């Protein structure tokens, strides 16, 4: 029924301008202000980000970015001011959960956007 639909995801933020700056300038994504929100291009897919006055950040990861080299990506994002989450007994000093070496899934590092939504990079 919906298998041919060009589906996309969306989530809210509390400050559209801060989100536009973060997703375009920090993450380097193509972001277009549609007047109703932000249309973000993700390697052929789309994401819609909209402002909501009573925004509450998700308590789960809303967007994952698979990368070839997580260490290089984490360093580059830190250089742009991104702070990575640290979870006791899970992440290392760089904020990376080393799942691959423990045979427990991917290496993954979590961070938040200016609205507190949880994002990740993973390998």
What this model shows, in words?
The protein is α/β, with parallel strands linked by helices. Helix content is 17%, strand content 33%. The chain has a single domain, classed as Roll (2,3-Dihydroxybiphenyl 1,2-Dioxygenase, domain 1), CATH 3.10.180.10. The strands form 2 sheets. Strands 1-4-3-2 form a 4-stranded mixed sheet, covered by helices on one side. Strand 3 and strand 4 form a beta hairpin.
The CATH superfamily is identified as 2,3-Dihydroxybiphenyl 1,2-Dioxygenase, domain 1
Number of domains: 1
Q: Based on CA inertia axes, which overall geometry fits?
A: globular
CATH domain class: Alpha Beta
Query: Which regions have little confidence, pLDDT < 50, spanning 5+ residues?
Result: none
Largest sheet: 4 strands, mixed
Number of helices: 2
The average pLDDT is 95
Radius of gyration: 15 Å
CATH architecture field? Roll
SSE succession: EHEEEEHEEE
Residues in helix, %:
10-25%
Q: What is the total tally of β strands?
A: 8
Short descriptors:
8 strands, 2,3-Dihydroxybiphenyl 1,2-Dioxygenase, domain 1, alpha/beta, 123 residues, 4-stranded mixed β-sheet, 17% helix
Task: Please write out the topology.
Blueprint: E1 9-13, H1 16-26, E2 30-33, E3 38-42, E4 45-51, E5 61-66, H2 70-79, E6 96-98, E7 107-112, E8 118-122
Parallel strand pairs: 1-4, 5-8
Antiparallel strand pairs: 2-3, 3-4, 6-7, 7-8
What is the structure about, briefly put?
The protein has 123 residues and is of the alpha/beta class. It is 17% helix and 33% strand. The relative contact order is 0.20.
